[in-house]
């Protein structure tokens, strides 16, 4: 469940999608650009009355294969990019994820989030690196949408806390990973539709127990 083979991509209605940002949202502090055509993402940025404090971009290999120059133009305008390890290597031309993050940093983003599926996620900011493990699950039913759920949880936490520091982004990574762990447990959106706040809180405690330890350094 940690790799994929894309046989065909059908854009359907998204091929001609031209979003209009409502007036009440044109001064948003955080802008999350979903995985769409880079020209659409750029049009959303241009509709904002002022530059948001943080612009987060999600993209995929389809746009790298077909609209690379447009994608690079958008990447130069954003603060955070979220992509998986395969896409990071393709975009950067580097196999090492550390070198890949450095190369992508040079394209514009201050923060690079590299998702590694069942192996967690990495957050890069200049020389700072943070690794968040994925929660070990007994069964993964359907990984479709896990990346989108991660991005939504990540952006949603930052928006709710109004704190865009590196330390808070580390927390946002955990919140994104936490929600993604629910997404894969059932088909499509079924698990997310029945998710309760108590479930989210309980699993956050599991993440905390997974990542905390005491060690004596000499």
What are the salient characteristics of this protein?
alpha/beta, 218 residues, globular
Based on DSSP secondary structure assignment, what is the total number of beta strands? Answer: 6
The fraction of residues in strands falls at 5-15%
Quaternary structure of the protein: single chain
Termini distance? 41 Å
Helix content: 40-55%
Explain what this protein looks like in three dimensions.
The structure is a single chain. Helix content is 43%, strand content 13%. It is an alpha/beta fold and 218 residues long. It has one domain (24-211): UDP-N-acetylmuramoyl-L-alanine:D-glutamate ligase. Strands 1-2-3-4-5-6 form a six-stranded mixed β-sheet, sandwiched between helices. A hairpin with a 2-residue loop joins strand 5 and strand 6. Helix 1 packs parallel to helix 3 (68-75), helix 6 packs antiparallel against helix 7 and helix 7 packs across helix 9 (197-211). The chain starts with 29 loop residues before the first strand and ends in a 7-residue tail after the last helix. The mean pLDDT is 90.
What order do the helices and strands come in, and which of them pair?
Blueprint: E1 30-33, H1 38-47, E2 54-58, H2 61-66, H3 68-75, E3 80-84, H4 85-92, H5 97-105, E4 111-115, E5 121-125, E6 128-132, H6 146-161, H7 166-183, H8 190-193, H9 197-211
Parallel strand pairs: 1-2, 2-3, 3-4
Antiparallel strand pairs: 4-5, 5-6
Helix pairs in contact: 1-3, 4-5, 6-7, 7-9
In short:
43% of the residues lie in helices and 13% in strands. It has 218 residues and is an alpha/beta fold.
């Amino acid at each position: 469940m940690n790799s994929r083979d894309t046989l065909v991509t059908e854009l359907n209605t998204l091929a001609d999608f031209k979003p209009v940002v409502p007036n009440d949202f044109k001064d948003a502090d955080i802008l999350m650009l979903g995985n769409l055509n880079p020209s659409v993402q750029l049009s959303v940025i241009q509709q904002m009355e002022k530059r948001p404090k943080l612009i987060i971009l999600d993209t995929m290999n389809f746009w790298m294969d077909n609209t690379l120059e447009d994608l690079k133009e958008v990447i130069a305008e954003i603060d955070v990019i979220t992509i998986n390890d395969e896409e990071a290597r393709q975009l950067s031309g580097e196999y090492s994820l550390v070198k890949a993050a450095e190369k992508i940093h040079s394209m514009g983003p201050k923060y690079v989030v590299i998702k590694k599926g069942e192996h967690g996620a990495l957050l890069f900011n200049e020389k700072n690196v943070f690794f968040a493990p994925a929660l070990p699950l007994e069964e993964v039913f359907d990984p479709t949408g896990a990346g989108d759920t991660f991005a939504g949880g990540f952006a949603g936490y930052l928006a709710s806390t109004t704190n865009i520091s590196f330390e808070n982004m580390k927390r946002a990574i955990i919140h994104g990973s936490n929600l993604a762990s629910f997404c894969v447990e059932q088909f499509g959106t079924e698990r997310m539709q029945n998710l309760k706040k108590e479930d989210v809180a309980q699993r956050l405690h599991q993440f905390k127990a997974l990542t905390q330890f005491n060690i004596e350094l000499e």
